[in-house]
Write a structure and sequence with these properties.
This protein is mainly α and 193 residues long. It contains seven helices and no strands.
Length: 193
């Protein structure tokens, strides 16, 4: 297994640790989750760059890299829903998009083709990861305020929640756009079945 593929697998292996940090309340758990999520996000950026630069692009990488992104982002979004920080409707929309794209990829693979992520899928992933990191930064700020003996006011909580919701919906918009483009570009795989 080459280095980019190891980074992709590593990203998947970080997900359970990230979920534990998000859902198990301990001092600065949001900061721990932020660090784990950020590390996983960095592997997403690195694996593709290394694969292209060193000529290490593989069918496994083309399939596993976007799958690892989906696992990481959806785990984060579901944790935010559990913690009351994300609208479940956005998660349902993203799940629908991801199942649709993955279904087309699976159909294509039965025909011997591997479909790599397009630029819109990459924009979607970047906006999702950025939104999630900002939400985790804001939650970490709340943790630090509480840990230092301060009080997180309702107004501050509301502002942070609204910022998070706006960011999640912006990333969901890009998920919809990228999903429609993906289905349109690859509809021939569906129509041939």
């Amino acid at each position: 297994m080459n280095l980019p593929n190891k980074l992709t697998v590593g990203r998947i292996l970080l997900v359970p640790l990230f979920v534990a940090a998000m859902l198990i309340p301990f001092p600065l758990h949001n900061l721990a989750a932020l660090i784990l999520f950020s590390a996983a996000s960095i592997t997403d950026m690195l694996d593709g760059k290394i694969a292209r630069k060193r000529g290490l692009i593989t069918d496994f990488g083309k399939f596993a890299d976007p799958l690892a992104d989906k696992i990481l982002v959806l785990a984060a979004m579901l944790c935010l829903v559990q913690n009351g920080l994300c609208d479940c409707v956005a998660v349902i929309i993203v799940l629908l998009r991801e199942f649709s794209v993955t279904s087309i990829r699976l159909i294509a693979s039965t025909k011997g083709e591997v479909i790599a992520a397009n630029k819109w899928g990459k924009v979607k992933t970047v906006t999702q990861m950025t939104a999630l990191i900002i939400i985790m930064v804001l939650q970490s700020v709340c943790d630090i305020i509480k840990l230092s003996g301060g009080v997180v006011t309702e107004d501050l909580s509301l502002i942070f929640f609204i910022i998070g919701e706006v960011l999640i919906w912006i990333s969901t918009f890009f998920a919809i756009i990228s999903g429609v483009i993906y289905v349109k570009q690859n509809f021939h795989f569906i129509s041939e079945t």
